[in-house]
Specification:
Strand order of the largest sheet: 2-3-4
Order of helices and strands: EHEHEEHEEEEHEEHHEEHHHHHEHHHHH
CATH class: Mainly Alpha
Distance between the termini: 22 Å
């Protein structure tokens, strides 16, 4: 198939000048929670357009906004569509389907060109796990309808050495038990622990985005083991074997991230390779956003109120707000936003569980949304709660030209003054106090979340729906 030479619409268009008036003194965020809400609000106003932005970009939006992400329709920008429903509906991009049926189940479309489809095995599903999508949720392919369970099965059957397994670990850690074992399609023995060991042995400096995604997946898997072990034994879990190694690696790089932190709260622009600072927003959000994101999964609950991490959160939030008028690439923007979303999940009551607002069956989507009671039944499971610009890759940049050229833009959601004021009043002192009280809705045993093990927000395994820096970015791929 001929690959189009058209440049990808990677950049999210900034908010219009008419809405960039200085905030009144009374409107300025006074607390960390208000800063976070403001940053999430203005970043959410940068819009993706279905069929214009690539599947890779849309999946990054889903990572940050989960079920809340809606996109503008290409044919009618006044209408919107759920991003998760769109990406699973059987649509095509570049003349290729987003999902493929396989002999073992199904998978996201593999790499064709940078920042279009999956840059790494299971990348789409890895990011989408943060929405806690039910295993029975249907996905359309050109040949048949598959489910999330089929995608998980395919990941198990097609796993092999020689590629970055970060997103495969991320996916399987969410949907499989920590003691899961299986044989892949080649007859080789695999297990969650083998994947964890591979991630431990992978040098951080060789991983995508400075190694931050690998550390995120490792911490995510560790958190799943801690939850599973506590539920299985009824005791405070003490890591052993490969889980002890995982915990030690996570602790080491928490220490290194803090040691390389800049005075303003940002993290090194060289990731773990050494100190570094930049005045460029794109560079700062690319590194600080990724670093803060994995830290939000790796840190114990009690550490979230420490000054250094609060400065880091404030820095990313302020950067997103202050640069809302700057065109930005999807990857770093959404990873930075996701870091704030995860912090909010872990500290503000009511945000822990992503709110399912779709239908399991493809045939039912587009109909009336589920009721509040139906949503509550489908959302009883929690996940661990604990956009990418590469200058030398022209395929990953797009000039922000005219509003009329929708293919080069993302339109923002219209928000009136009342909505802006409401967002800034969303969380007052109650939300800020919640962070200091180390709220953890997944467990009432404080000794577990604050143990030397370093447990982050302990997740609950998803139930069936019927119970209702390297220079590489994560869009790169290496064929081995």
């Amino acid at each position: 198939m001929r690959i189009p030479t058209k440049r990808l619409p990677t950049q999210l268009r900034p908010l219009p000048a008419s809405r960039l008036r200085p905030l009144l003194r009374s409107q300025c965020p006074k607390t960390l929670s208000q800063q976070i809400e403001r940053a999430i609000q203005v970043t959410s106003q940068r819009r993706l357009t279905a069929g214009v932005h690539t599947p890779w970009q849309v999946v990054h939006g889903i990572l940050a906004q989960r079920w809340d992400l809606s996109m503008l329709k290409k044919e009618n920008p006044k209408e919107e569509v759920s991003a998760i429903e769109w990406i699973t509906s059987g649509v095509y991009f570049d003349g290729e389907p987003l999902w493929q049926a396989t002999p073992y189940g199904g998978r996201g479309h593999p790499f064709t060109r940078p920042y279009a489809f999956e840059g790494h095995p299971t990348q789409f599903m890895g990011y989408m796990t943060m929405a806690n999508i039910p295993l029975e949720y249907e996905v359309r392919t050109p040949t048949k309808i598959i489910t999330i369970a089929d995608i998980v099965k395919d990941a198990k059957m097609q796993v092999h050495t020689g590629v970055e397994i970060t997103w495969t670990l991320w996916t399987l850690a969410h949907y499989e038990e920590p003691d899961a074992q299986w044989f892949n399609a080649a007859g080789e023995p695999w297990s969650i622990e083998r994947l964890v060991k591979m991630q431990i042995d992978e040098p951080v400096t060789s991983g995508a985005c400075g190694g931050c995604h690998g550390l995120f997946a490792l911490a995510y898997a560790r958190n799943m083991w801690l939850s599973w072990e506590r539920e299985r034994t009824g005791k405070i879990p003490v890591p052993r074997g490969v889980w002890f190694e995982a915990d030690q690696k996570i602790k080491r790089y928490i220490f290194e991230a803090r040691a390389l932190q800049n005075a303003d709260g940002s993290f090194s622009t060289n990731h773990f390779a050494g100190p570094g600072y930049s005045d460029d927003f794109a560079t700062r959000i690319t590194t600080s956003g990724h670093q803060l994101e994995w830290l939000m999964i790796g840190l114990p609950q009690s550490k979230l109120k420490e000054e250094w991490i609060r400065r880091a959160i404030s820095n990313v939030a302020k950067d997103l707000v202050d640069n809302r008028h700057v065109a930005s690439d999807c990857g770093p923007l959404y990873h930075g936003m996701h870091a704030l979303v995860v912090y909010r999940q872990r500290t503000v009551p009511g945000y822990l569980v992503p709110q399912f607002n779709s239908h399991i069956k493809l045939s039912e989507r587009g109909k009336k949304r589920p009721t509040a009671e139906e949503l509550a039944k489908k959302s009883k499971k929690a996940v661990p709660v604990p956009a990418e610009k590469i200058a030398d890759k022209p395929a990953n940049t797009v000039a922000d030209k005219t509003v009329e050229k929708a293919t080069d833009k993302v339109t923002e959601k219209a928000v009136d003054a009342t909505a802006e004021k409401t967002a800034e009043k969303t969380t007052e002192k109650t939300a800020d106090k919640a962070a200091d009280k180390t709220v953890d809705a997944t467990t009432t045993d404080k000794t577990v979340t604050d143990s030397p093990v370093g447990a982050a927000a302990i997740p609950i395994k998803p139930k069936p729906a019927d119970a209702n820096a390297s220079s590489k970015g994560d869009g790169d791929t290496t064929k081995k």
